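Service request form, structural biology core

Requester: graduate student, group of Dr. S.
Request type: structure prediction, single chain
Budget code: on file
Notes: please return the result as structure tokens.

Sequence provided:
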Amino acid sequence: MFELVGSETTSLLRVENVSKSFPGVRALDNISLKLNVGEVLAIVGENGAGKSTLIKTLGGAHQADSGQLFIDEEPIVIGSPSEAKDLGVSIIYQEFNLIPDLSVRENIFLGREKASGLFIDESFEANGVESLYGQLGLKLDSEKLCRELTIAEQQLVEIAKALSLDAKILVMDEPSATLTQSEVDQLFRIIKDLKAKGIGIIYISHRLEEVFEICDRVMVLRDGQHVMTKSVAEVTRHALIESMVGRSLESEFPPRNSKIGDTLLEVKNFSRGTVVQDVSFSLKSGEILGFSGLVGAGRTETMRLIFGADPKDNGQLTVRGKLLEIDEPWEAIVNGICMLTEDRKNQGLVLAHSVVENFSLPNLKSYSKVLFLDEELEKDRFRNFVNEIKIKVSNYEQEVGHLSGGNQQKVVLAKWLECNADVLIFDEPTRGIDVGAKFEIYQLMNKLAEAGKAIIMISSELPEVLGMSDRIIVMRGGRIQGEITNVNQASQEEVMHLAVE
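Core staff response, request fulfilled:
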């Protein structure tokens, strides 16, 4: 299954002058790339740069308008996902293609079942899974239903499924976006093993530190065009960022000018079972308060209690000195508290609805005239945010699910900014967003703080927490383990020490 094909410089995949257009958009403009045997090629770029279109073209979900693909120097045409798999190309998308109510074994062999009489030969499949596990160094119950697996485990099942198809080209789209550091370490170990076996890997990620750690070369796309391809050893992080955004960035984080004022919000003794235990803190106007900790530390769970999304066992919440009892999100919104959820696609947006409908959902009262909706006022208000925070939409009726991740996040931001909340909770505000869009969101957060808003920011990216926060609270096991006030002098090691010990 894992035979090494040729040398390190052998071309496994070549893309020559591939173009792809959609109505009004040229998504790929004469793109060429080369993937060598046993190589990890990073593809980076801002949201909308063409990365997704490129990998969908490689995976057979899209067909190129022009250009040529080669595998092992043989010209090929990929007309469908099944043809891509037959040619040894497997795509692991951000949204996995697993059937939740089937087992690991059943998902791996789905569509390729071997019959024994009138029944499926489950022993054959079990042996196949065991062989894959041995090669990947995995320990996972093959009869466990996929809906019972963690995100990291589901990803490993996707890798095992790809290798069971004798994939020689593996494309990973944001594979580490929702993984813990230990899970990322395991993923990197597997990638290194796959490299040694001659598999070529295309690695798409917004986490640039991973590009420098695991990749051999890096290719930059911008606005559907190829900008550069270089060895990772030949490029700096700063130069890579500037190449991606097409302009000079003096810093990844904009300067802060806000003045911290009086206390806006106080949380006292919040508890919910074992996930949140006796949490107390305060938040001031003009302040960005960072929350750090490992996955499962209780950060999101605490914020959901504040927002009324989950019931608390006990605790008190005070906003502007007024004691509140918030049991539902609408009560939080009425009292000036808004929350950008970690999972924008499932909790922050209605993907099948238009961008303007998503913007309006929590603000319908503002646009209502007796029994009717003032659609012109609605669009005027949304237009202001399109211009102010640079939301890229083709038209206001465009389905929000068709926007890039960065623009989806901006729509979520816009709907909450329209509420004119005093307290804004940002849960992983830049997850899955490119560096250019990140910088814009950082600027917006600073602008809100300068206007006297109070912001809580949960982030799993330590540079982001240190670069944007006035104070940092670190949680572990549902409790606050420490607070860092001298953020300018703090280090990632100091934050991690509180998070793990």
